[in-house]
Structure formats: structure tokens, C-alpha cells
Amino acid sequence: MKETKLPTRIPGLGVFLIAMSPRFGRSQGKIRVVSGETGQAHPGADARMGSSDSRREAMNSFEKVLARICLEHGWASRAQIADAVRTRAQEGSSAALAAVLVARGVLTPEQAGMLQSEASEVTKSGPYADVREHDTWIGQLLVESGAVSADMIQSALDRQAAAAARKEPVPRLGEILIEKGVLAYGALLDALQRQSQLIHLACTSCGKKYATDKKEKGKVYLCNECASPLASTPRMAVPPALEPEEVVRAAANPANVLGKYVLVAQLGKGAMGVVHKAWDRGLRRWVAFKVLTATSDPSLVLRFRREAETAASIQHPNIVPIYDVGE
User: Fold this and answer.
1) Per-residue pLDDT tens over the stretch 156-166
2) Domain count within the chain
3) In a domain, 3, yes or no
4) Which of 140, 159, 199, 241 has the largest count of CB atoms under 10 Å?
């Protein structure tokens, strides 16, 4: 079996391997493939979008990301977004930016829903250790592609570390870079797609981590630091976890199973509907499931759906988020 030291690029194969950088992650190796020194602001989302102090105060991080993605799609102009933000502030409204743009006829409800979903994915956080490792790989892929500079990535990772030290929610790398206007949403999607296809390797001795586009069959890759062999570390499939016992009992009655939801207990009842404690089997989480009982009047059904769509367009800590609606 052939052994080889880990190269920057494997001749003739176009295979690249990246070792996590000390600039991006502590106690890691050296960047093996880096190209591009400067990050370019993407079309429709330059620094002018966040140059006003009053605008920064009027838009939270989620809305800044949403606004830049909206600009990249070409669904609204800077002037339209700025005018919506300014008017909302003058009126003292707490409506979400997407809802304001829909009300002004700038966006369709479908476009607003897509923006909410895309911005939510960009800003979705988690435990700092997981965020740090995932975003470090993404950062190096962005640098390798020339989308942003290494200094920009390091600055974003430093901001994450500072937030974690203050025990605050850790912003994602994409959120920070898109908010600053130095990264296009499309470039982030490309990096995420590429990251999902990487084969992760780890040194069996010192534990240093690497990643590669593909691994040549029959070749043994060695760590650049200690020359020990690298082992594949594929993501293991998570075995299906057992459902809560009360869910299992409720699901035994077919009347309690509505698609991917299992109705477990009634929480409340009104003139028009009933609210149940329910289990979402798809995402394995508890939800409040409201069922409209007054369905004989089509106008009430339409009203019910519109209320759900309006609530789904609003992002606020004191407003219950809407996950789904259907018949």
C-alpha cells in the first residue's frame, strides 16, 4: 500500500486537502490551500446598506441578513428597504421587515416566506463548540475560493469567541459576513454545498483534522505534523431515537395521528378551534397544534389561514413562531 505525506494538492487528481488553520482554530495545523486575499462585496449588498447609524438601530441582525438576501435576489431596491425601515421606525411599529415590505407591495407573501426561511438558515446558531468547528471549515472553503480574505474570517471567528465568552448567542459566520456586506448569499450556499461533500480525516495520533474532496483508493495519507496515518471520520447516521412514552400511547389511536403530528393532549378549546399538545415526528419536537373546528364557513377557513401567514411573517421573542399550516 502506497504511503504519502499530505500534499497541498495531489498531482493529477485535483484533490486538495485542508488542515484547520491556527488562525481559524486553536491547536490546529496550517492552511494547505488558500487563494484570494481580498473579499469583494457582492452586487446589491455593499457597505452602504449598513452605513447609517439610525438604520443599524432600526434593523436587528436577522433583518440585515434578510435585507441583503432580498437585494441579491433583486426583489427590492435599497431605497425601498430603507424607506420601509424608516417608516416603521417613525410609526413605532414592531412588525417584521418582511411583513412591512409585503404590506407596501414590494414583496409577495411567497417571496417574504422564502426570505424568512433563507435568513433563518443563515442565522441559526447552536453550541459554540459545534458552531466553531463547522464555521471554521466553511471559512477556509470561502478563503480557498477567493470569496473573502483570511483576515475577514478571523475577525468573524473572533466575534463568535467574544460572544461565547459573554455567554451570548453565537452569531454564525455567514450571518456576520453577509451582514457586513462582504459575502454573497450564493457564495455561502456554494461553500455549504462543498462542505457537505468533503471527506473528513483525522490523525490517529495527534488528532489534527483535515478534509479532502475525495480520497484516492489504496492510498494512505499521513499527518504533516507527526507522520501518523489519517483515518476517515464519516458522519455517523443518528439512530432513530425512541419517542416519548406519551407520544407512543397517543399514536396507538389512529385518530390522534395527523400526518407527521401526533396529538397528545388537549390544551384549550374555544368557539372556533381546539389547541393540542402535539409531537412533530419529522423534527422531533413538541408543538402546539391548533385545529379549526368551525370549517363549514369557507370565509373562516380563509381567515384562519391568513392569520397563520401573518403570524409566520413576524419575528419577535414574545410571539409564538408558526412552523406549519395545512388542511
Assistant:
1) 999 999 988 89
2) 1
3) no
4) 140
